[in-house]
Design goal:
By secondary structure, this protein is an alpha+beta fold. It has 7 helices and 10 strands. The strands form 4 sheets. Strands 1-2-8-3 form a 4-stranded antiparallel sheet, with helices on both faces. It has a two-stranded antiparallel sheet with strand order 4-5. A two-stranded antiparallel ribbon has the order 6-7. Strand 9 and strand 10 form a beta hairpin. The protein binds iron/sulfur cluster (2 copies). The site of one iron/sulfur cluster (SF4) has 14 residues, from helix 5.
């Protein structure tokens, strides 16, 4: 099996346009739900490469949900393109790899919720990019929760990055601000959140993301490298 260093992987990922990158070993996915472990997708998987792209924070200042929605809709194909190009670069080096789709989910009938084939947030946490906060979003040191995530599963055994310590301070502000109490329990009430946050605007008849209150209120939503707000 051809191998590749952690440094070389990051050089490729940054050259493709990502802002953050990390590598996780499979031991860090022991708690993944059945059917949604990296080995359930690629049985020969040895490492998970996770990456993040910053989400322009100006969207948080807008009176309309349109810019936030457009950024999210534009970031999705960007993350998928980075994942695809990374797979091609790895294959050129003799390493089999597959992309995890950024926003496509499968229905998990065991837990009645939609899931990515491998959780992007858990992969990013396992790869040392950030930590999942009480609001169930990933918080990074550099860009807070203003990031979008992508990942690739591969057969190469790559030296993993260290995981980072918790960032969330459990202030509960995100729990209190949620208009539909979707964060009341430890696990996000996905249907309550999605019913409230996503859908057609009644007036403009356009699909928008109309709620990100839990993201906005978090004291760690911007990180050290977002200086514009
Ligand atoms: S996005 Fe809105 S509805 Fe969903 S958990 Fe956050 S505050 Fe609640
Ligand atoms: S608002 Fe407070 S509890 Fe919620 S994620 Fe941020 S730091 Fe954690």
């Amino acid at each position: 099996m051809t191998n590749i260093s952690n440094h070389e992987v990051k050089e490729i990922v940054y050259s493709l346009g990502a802002d953050l990158c990390g590598v996780a070993c499979l031991e860090r996915f022991d708690n993944a739900p059945k059917g949604f472990h990296p080995l359930d997708v690629l049985p020969s998987c040895k490492s998970v490469i996770s990456f993040a792209v910053r989400f322009p924070v100006g969207a948080l200042k807008c009176e309309t949900p349109v810019p936030y929605t457009r950024i999210r809709n534009s970031l999705t194909p960007k993350m998928d393109a980075i994942a695809l190009d990374l797979c091609i670069e790895l294959e050129k080096r003799g390493i089999v790899s597959v992309p995890v789709p950024t926003n496509e989910s499968l229905w998990d009938e065991k837990t009645n919720r939609w899931r990515s084939i491998v959780s992007q947030k858990h992969a990013a946490q396992a790869a040392g990019i950030g930590r999942i906060g009480r609001h169930s979003l990933l918080i990074t040191k550099q860009f807070g929760s203003m990031v979008w995530l992508g990942s690739v599963l591969c057969e190469a055994e790559i030296e993993p990055d260290e995981m980072i310590e918790d960032i969330c301070n459990h202030c509960n502000r995100c729990v209190q601000v949620c208009p539909v109490n979707a964060l009341e329990k430890e696990e996000l009430n996905q249907s309550a959140c999605w019913d409230n946050a996503f859908g057609d605007d009644e007036v403009t008849k356009t699909w928008v993301i109309s709620c990100h209150k839990c993201r906005d209120i978090c004291p760690y939503n911007l990180g050290t490298d977002n200086k514009l707000i």
